[in-house]
TrEMBL record:
Pfam families: CofD
CDD domains named in the record: YvcK_like
Protein name: Putative gluconeogenesis factor
MF term (GO), any: LPPG:FO 2-phospho-L-lactate transferase activity
Family: Belongs to the gluconeogenesis factor family.
GO BP, one annotated term: regulation of cell shape
Classification via InterPro entries: CofD, CofD-like_dom_sf, Gluconeogen_factor
Organism per entry: Lactobacillus helsingborgensis
Length: 341
């Protein structure tokens, strides 16, 4: 397969180059805010999701799960809000196929068939949606997430892993349709190599962040990059993944999977969360605020930046994208200055 030279060649500019790696609902929040900060953004998106509309489409045709890619495209798009709403619309129909499907997922699947691979499909759709930045699937092939639990048992499949509700020891990815080793395409590696800041998260530790880093050549690119590697620690622990984890335990798991101390800076929330605002029926997947362990983070070789990073105005709790983005941009500019020295 060949790739457009304009895509592979990542040029430096006056704008800080920020690579964000992950998936899930937290990623678009940060990307939206970074876009407002005028960063040159490359989003590397997880392709191992096997639930909901994405999983259903994946079961019908050989395509990576499109859900996270769809949300990231919208977050960086310059099209009108009405056009975004159409792209995000989910069918509320009794039809056995269309019910629950997002229009954007179907468009991504169609473009995948037209172009013959998901990478070229996403680049074509990025152009149509006037995306400010780059959106790269972490792999050009659908991947299956595998986990070994502390008790020694093994499970495949993202949903199946979290449904086990057991302590996870380690995860890895395999190609869903072949026995070849998973790999990231050259533009992904080039973006990481040329970045001023590489951001991990926010998102589910074992199912949104680590699946990307477990792609061998992508993980190696993160280990070798001279960029500032930043982890945005989750605000709440997650049932079936990070029950009762501290911020240090999140970072320790990432470092153990990468094989060394590779997180340069961790952004952690230091503000008190009003648990009385939670609706247990809406938030039953989350258990408690992530505990702070600043000493443990420093022992992991990570600088710690703590602040009020939460937005709980809706009653739920999310990262305040603007506050997080400002910290990322400051760290990216500092990395740019070090490179010039």
């Amino acid at each position: 397969m060949t790739y457009n030279d304009k895509v592979i060649h990542v040029t430096r500019s006056r704008r800080p180059q920020v690579v964000v790696i992950g998936g899930g609902t937290g990623l678009p929040v940060v990307l939206n805010a970074l876009k407002e900060q005028n960063a040159e953004i490359s989003a590397i998106v997880t392709v191992s999701d096997d639930g909901g509309s994405s999983g259903s489409i994946r079961n019908f045709i050989n395509v990576v799960p499109p859900g996270d890619i769809r949300n990231v495209l919208v977050s960086l798009s310059e099209i009108s809000q009405e056009e975004k709403d159409v792209f995000q619309y989910r069918f509320d129909s009794s039809d056995s196929f269309f019910s629950g499907h997002a229009i954007g997922n179907l468009i991504i699947a169609a473009l995948n068939e037209m172009h013959g691979n998901i990478f070229d499909a996403v680049q074509a759709l990025s152009k149509m949606m006037r995306v400010d930045g780059h959106v790269y699937p972490a792999s050009n092939e659908p991947l299956t997430l595998n986990a070994e639990f502390v008790d020694g048992s093994i499970q495949a499949g993202e949903k199946e892993i979290t449904d086990k509700d057991k302590r996870i020891k380690r995860v890895w990815v395999t190609n869903t349709k072949s026995k070849s080793e998973p790999e990231a395409v050259p533009p992904v590696l080039a973006a990481i190599n040329n970045a001023d800041a590489v951001v991990l998260g926010p998102g589910s530790l074992f199912t949104s962040i680590l699946p990307n880093l477990m792609i061998p050549n992508l993980g190696e690119a993160v280990r070798k990059t001279s960029a500032e590697v930043i982890y945005i620690c989750n605000i709440m622990t997650q049932k079936g993944e990070t029950d009762h984890f501290s911020d240090c335990e999140h970072v320790k798991v990432i470092n153990e999977h990468l094989g060394g101390h590779y997180i340069n800076t961790t952004l952690v929330n230091g503000a008190k969360i009003d648990m009385s605002k939670f609706n247990p029926n809406d938030y039953d997947a989350y258990l408690e605020p992530v505990k702070n362990d600043y000493q443990g983070l420093r022992e992991q070789g990570s600088r710690v930046i703590t602040a009020d990073f939460i937005d709980q105005r809706s009653g739920l709790v999310f990262h305040d994208g603007k506050k997080v983005a400002k910290e990322i941009i400051n760290l990216a500019f500092a990395a740019m200055a070090r490179r010039k020295d």
